[in-house]
Amino acid sequence: MRALIAALIVSAAPLAAETPVLTLPIDCELGVSCFIEDYVDRDPEPGTQRDFACGLNSRDGHKGTDIALLSFDRMDEGVEVRAAAPGRVLRTRDGMADDITLQGVTDDNACGNAALIEHGDGWQTMYCHMKRGSVAVQPGDEVAAGDPLGEVGVSGQTTHPHVHLTVYRDGEVVDPFAPGDTSACDPAPDDTLWAEPPTYYKTGLMTAGFSTALPSLDEVRSGAARVTETAPGTPLVVYGHMAYPQPGDLLTITAQGPDGEEMFRQEIEVETDQVSQMRAFGRRAPSGGWPAGDYLGEALVTRDGVVIAHRNAHVTVR
């Protein structure tokens, strides 16, 4: 990723001397058709993560804000990635395949199909993982806030459709939710780059995956529960590991077969405020076994009908 940043970030004459005010860089409705999956990692120690509110909704070393769609079908329909602020396009990349197997992905192209925009006074924004062939701007183009840059895809280092937005000031990563000190762990800080700051939810999904039996929490935490390939005769179970859920939250677990047909769906209401909770649901193999192919599992957390967390899971039956 460092090589990518070095290749994209360049010096140029400033456009303005003001701090940019950001709008949502994607054409979706938060809590309905998309949600914020990961924030900038504010913990400098390797192997740990902390978002700006001292929650766990980040990944170790994550340098941006991930806004994710809820389905590949929605991605296929076409969802615009939009400029978060006015500026000038510096660099773009297109042509990388939308491939969740991550074949050919390296540190140099982990951002996938992308655009880098300068906003003046050292400010830049970068937009990653756009759909191949969708990038709609060229270096030198002037853009306004909300102008389309491309469409959400799964190019680069990702396995689900989302836009990754990184904000830079003089080449350094800036957290748009709290560009200053976050020692207070404030979920709604006054110091923010957003024109309309999105609602923060501490609740999140740490992971979701397929297993061949009902796993324990320890097995999920260690990764021992996860399978990516299995035989036709084994059970298929989808699990979701939640952090900081609240009583009344609803975890919905589903799985789809290779033909896109839903195999099972289970809604599980959270009953306690235990910080770390795992739930799972699945089915035994039918007579004759599961058809060969790729299966998609999903774990979705809603609160009073608002989507606050979502994770995909993948397994191949051979």
From TrEMBL:
Residues 1-16 form the signal peptide. Residues 62-176 form the M23ase beta-sheet core domain. Keywords: Signal. CDD domains: M23_peptidase (cd12797). Transmembrane segments: none annotated. GO terms for molecular function: metalloendopeptidase activity. PANTHER family: L-ALA--D-GLU ENDOPEPTIDASE, PEPTIDASE-RELATED. This is Peptidase, M23/M37 family protein.
